[in-house]
Automatic annotation (TrEMBL):
Superkingdom in the source lineage: Bacteria
Record's protein name: Argininosuccinate lyase
Alphabetically ordered keywords of this record: Amino-acid biosynthesis, Arginine biosynthesis, Lyase
EC number(s) reported in the record: 4.3.2.1
Taxonomic placement: Bacteria, Bacillati, Bacillota, Bacilli, Bacillales
Source organism (scientific name): Cohnella terricola
Gene3D superfamilies registered for this protein in UniProt: Fumarase/aspartase (C-terminal domain), Fumarase/aspartase (Central domain), Fumarase/aspartase (N-terminal domain)
Length: 463
């Protein structure tokens, strides 16, 4: 609020809308305000709101001329500008934490680019992949969340100032100048839209809600992987809780908290969207005072989750041997066996698929795994399905069933081949670097502009 006051005063003075001596007096009062006292004051009802309390304090310091600070503006355009300034700062804080998490995910994926694991579809074993390939996918998803938060920031960081109540002003103000002084990237051009539009906060809520839902899916996976039965990962000691009665327990409560916090985050974001729903398109409390705490809270929760998850990922242990053995003991490579029959035998894929599916059912009923399959069994199945033997050798069969080869030959863009995963991670590195530099630049620019307000006003007294 004080920064908005300073920017408006500078603009009024530059536009010669108030006398220099009046501007100087108001400027001294603004610089002399006890902001700590204002922050810590409790609401007593003496003033309708903080705006009028600040106006009173300025009048005490500068006299009646302080009233001219409100020339050509309203609480409407001023309030929206304040909300947007606050929200852009909170977005940058969340983005920094999101980027730190992405760095941990990229590093973790690179470390495990060759760590075999089963990929799942419909919660069932599907095909071999690697931990690095999976985590790179989580990082890509987070990258899109980051992109949506940046887009929400860009639409948020636009100035409503100069819209006044809803029709601008008859005074020759410069909306561009106040936007520049407060480091807004642009104007909300239409004055009615400036005070009536609420999609800037809705867009933030939508981006946060989707980010929370995306990360909630990953936290659910982590909880599954950490079970004794799955035994794929081990959460580090600082992030587990012991049982008060069972000595053996290591409860991964940090991940449980992640999941519940993300649900609460998505809920608060959903509340924001529902509060905007069916409200009039104009200045109204539903989209302002009562709404802001929910969007602040969902941003704060998302930020805390990003920071916590970054530490969990950085200290997570992967049981490579268990994951590898599970792949070896599965039928997950049978897609490659069907592909091999297409390449070697010239069969249509659907026919090859049928042969291998029948083979898998036969092996499963016998309690066998893919490593137990033989050419004899394959030929018996082929005779039943297509009436002829196949020319596949035992070595070719074992090669088709080898999970390392399965992963290695899937080197198409986006595949699990370790070199391809590392290439994709290099692209993610570049995206991360660009976003980090953008975020840092924005934060530094905002801080610089706010300090510049004080220097500009203080400079009036040195002339």
């Amino acid at each position: 609020m004080i920064a908005v006051n300073k920017a408006h005063l500078i603009m009024l003075r530059e536009q010669n809308l108030i006398a220099e001596h009046e501007a100087n007096g108001i400027g001294r009062a603004l610089l002399g305000l006890d902001q700590e006292k204002l922050r810590n004051n409790r609401y007593t009802g003496k003033f309708e709101d903080l705006f009028f309390e600040v106006e009173h304090e300025l009048a005490v310091l500068a006299g009646e001329r302080a009233g001219n600070l409100h020339l050509a503006r309203s609480r409407n355009d001023m309030g929206i500008a304040i909300y947007r300034i606050v929200l852009r700062g909170k977005l940058l804080t969340v983005l920094q934490s999101a980027l730190s998490l992405r760095r941990r995910l990229i590093d973790f994926a690179r470390k495990h680019a060759e760590t075999l694991m089963l990929g799942y579809t419909h919660t069932q074993q599907a095909q071999p992949t690697t931990v690095g390939h999976y985590i790179a996918a989580v990082s890509d998803s987070l990258g899109r969340d980051i992109g949506r938060l940046i887009a929400a920031y860009r639409n948020c960081n636009r100035s409503s100032l100069g819209a006044a109540a809803l029709t601008t002003s008859g005074y020759a103000i410069s909306r561009e100048r106040t936007a520049e002084l407060l480091d807004f990237d642009d104007l909300i051009v239409n004055a009615y839209d400036a005070v009536g539009g609420a999609d800037y906060v809705g867009e933030i809520a939508a981006a946060v809600q989707l980010a929370a839902i995306n990360l909630g899916r990953f936290s659910q996976e982590l909880l599954l992987w950490g079970t004794t039965e799955f035994a794929g990962i081990r959460v580090a000691d600082p992030y587990v809780q012991i049982s008060s009665i069972m000595p053996q327990k290591r409860n991964p409560v940090s991940v449980e908290h992640l999941r519940s916090l993300l649900s609460a985050c998505a809920g608060d974001a959903g509340t924001v969207l529902m509060m905007i729903h069916n409200t009039p398109f104009g200045d109204i409390v539903d989209t302002e005072d009562d709404l802001q705490p929910y969007v602040w809270r969902c941003l704060r929760t998302l930020d805390s989750v990003y920071r916590l998850l970054a530490e969990i990922v950085a200290t997570l242990e992967v049981n490579r041997e268990v994951l590898r053995a599970r792949v070896k003991g599965s039928f997950a490579t049978l897609t490659e066996l069907a592909d091999t029959l297409v390449r070697k035998e010239g069969l249509p894929f659907r026919e090859a698929h049928g042969i291998v599916a029948s083979l898998a059912r036969r092996a499963y009923r016998s309690g066998m795994s893919a490593s137990d399959l033989t050419v004899r069994m394959l030929n018996e199945t082929a005779l039943e399905r297509i009436g002829r033997l196949l020319s596949l050798s035992e070595d070719e069969l074992h090669e088709a069933l080898d999970p390392e080869r399965f992963v290695a030959i899937r080197d198409v863009i986006g595949g699990p081949n370790p070199q391809e995963v590392n290439r994709a991670l290099s692209v993610q590195d570049a995206e991360l670097q660009e976003a980090q530099e953008w975020t840092q630049k924005k934060q530094e620019s905002h801080e610089h502009k706010f300090k510049e307000l004080d220097r500009t006003i203080a400079g009036w007294f040195l002339d």
